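Deliverable D4.2, example record:
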Amino acid sequence: MQFKGNGSFNSKCQKFLKQKTQCDSIYLMSSCTHALEMAAILLNIQQGDEVIMPSYTFSSTANAFVLRGAKIQFIDIVPETMNLDVNLIEEAINENTKAIVPMHYAGVSCDMDKLLKIASDHNLAVVEDSAQCIGAKYKGKSLGTMGDFGCYSFHATKNIHCGEGGALFVNNPSFIERSELIREKGTNRNKFLKGEVDKYTWVDIGSSYLLSEINAAFLYAQLQKEQLVTSRRLKIWKKYNEGLSNLQTEGKIELPHIPDYNSPNGHIFFIKTKDINERTKLSNHLKKLDINASFHYIPLHSAKAGIRYGEFVGEDKYTTLESKRLLRLPVYMSLSDVKVDRVIQSIIDFYNF
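Output generated by the structure prediction step:
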């Protein structure tokens, strides 16, 4: 087995993902971060350009565009899904805006029909941060296949992983040829391998984005179990949702909301407490019982780099408030029903104490 990228296991993974998602142009990457960075290069993001995205996301979502010189325009979220509020996008659009970057939190998308209509009306690119989305769909379409680009993660924290890895979905055919150049360190090596040129050389900017063959082999074994993994995680998700429903009915917590247009993948199950103080107390309660429950992102617009490289457009009505209430519960393939029941009962005991 060769150890460099673009070997047989890379090809097998790409073929699997193409069949699963119906995307024709998929490039395995060394990370989702690199997939986002490559999308920014392909869009020719430059100094002075602006990019719209939610503040409630991981730093990589913003970094990819900041590295090209862009200013980030953060907008508020919809509290039910923690995704960007598509109704606020147009308020943030100006003559410098080049792209919209929705991050599909927990494998649940925003209203992509409306978002894509806005993008089309204003001639803006769409880069779907689909890091958490393997197996998830919007109206029957795989997340990451509707914008110009989709960026997947196969990091160890994701449903399907290879330790470190990712993929770039190129849904706009006009970017395919340049994608091959950038991914191959800016060379036309792929044309050389296809016999289209007699030697290859440096023709564009690029970097070393290839996924190693060892990682691809690991990933291929994982992908073959994707349906089994998704099924188990969804079972855990539903068990939490049913077991904690009475607490929501009593107004003690809030549970996730899945819009009718979504088919989720069970990546994350979260609850929302009354406020950050209650969340801290609940988290400490669970920790004493050896149950790992954690919060998630600190909104980027309030971070040191976020203040330097971006700004929040409009009112921060939900982003900060909701981020302080959210607590993620354990979800992983080998988590037994007995342990799920223990987590549920421990939360019930906390609120009934």
